[in-house]
TrEMBL record:
GO cellular component: ATP-binding cassette (ABC) transporter complex, substrate-binding subunit-containing
Ranges of residues in domain ABC transporter: 4-234
Family annotation (PROSITE patterns): ABC_TRANSPORTER_1, ABC_TRANSPORTER_2
Keyword annotations of the record: ATP-binding, Nucleotide-binding, Transport
Signal peptide residues on this chain, from the entry's feature table: none
Species of provenance: Sinorhizobium medicae
Nucleotide-binding found in the keyword field: yes
GO annotation (BP), single: carbohydrate transport
Record-level Gene Ontology MF annotations: ABC-type transporter activity; ATP binding; ATP hydrolysis activity
Topology in the lipid bilayer: Peripheral membrane protein
Name of the molecule in the record: Glycerol-3-phosphate transporter subunit ATP-binding component of ABC superfamily
Record family assignment: Belongs to the ABC transporter superfamily.
Amino acid sequence: MARLQLRNVVKSYGIHEAVRGVSLDIDDKEFVVFVGPSGCGKSTTLRMIAGLEHISRGEIAIGDEVVNRLGPGKRDIAMVFQNYALYPHMSVRENIAFCLEQQKLPKAEIQQRIATAAETLHITELLDRRPGQLSGGQRQRVAMGRAIVRNPKVFLFDEPLSNLDAKLRVKMRTEIKRLHQLIPTTTVYVTHDQVEAMTMADRVVVMNKGMVEQMDEPQKLYLKPASKFVAGFIGSPSMNFLPARLAGEATDLHLVLEDGTRLAVPASRADDFKHHLNRSVIFGIRPESISSHCDRPGWVPIDAAVDLVEPLGATSMVYFNVGKTGLCASIDSEFAPKARTRLPFSINMNQMHLFDPETERSLAC
């Protein structure tokens, strides 16, 4: 187990920079998830940590050792891949034992490590089967077992649940998180699924276009996104964004939307934005911060025509327009309206976000 540090790491392919100056400190025993859209550089960064990609510039240190010039086998890491990478002609026991045999460990120690890992992952009864006789979830456990027995300094997971169905993915992410509690090894996990990132991580690294947009605890990313990109990527459904203008005085602020709708800014949020008076902004509000009519403090009423309703069981997604901009509200299905009806909504301005239209950075930071 060890601390992991990336210092201004760059990966170039010709003139294209896939990773652009990433600097991170990952603490010993911490579970960190890299998340972002396809092509953002998260898997490339993971592969550089593993030694599978050459580092164009910068340094990567595991513990106190800079590992730039060390091959994958000398970095004391264990990696779990998306495609499991199991040997089809070997039994589960032989797959797990293979890396230990390459290290020429005593047979008794190898068998003890296999037994311990198999018990931890509940695959003891599968040890004599071959990968072709296993389900996707069982094969993923075997791949994890092969990593566990190495007792590495760092675990690396490269989208390990992408090939599983939705129900099994939920079960496996719970098992991976529980496994980390049992074996608290420094872990870096890559996914494109923000729900996986939010539910599993101690801290989340949100990447975009080869750079780190924000690194923070999941709930802080949700409540205080540093940019419009983070605000839109974290949370499901995605945050609503509307062009607006911040007007008024320091003690009496309001947002003017493009259709002329005026939304009062609560006094509790005035200090966050009082230095940005009389300027264009991007107003962000999450679907769960919009409700059917509510008269609690900080909730501002608006009147809108419902365009579409998507029932999802306990909640319903309700779509409507403000000016030319479409919004989504997440509403208790018991109070969900019918499509093509007009009714009052309320926006919780206590949970509003404002972003700079040019830089797209949060004005509250």
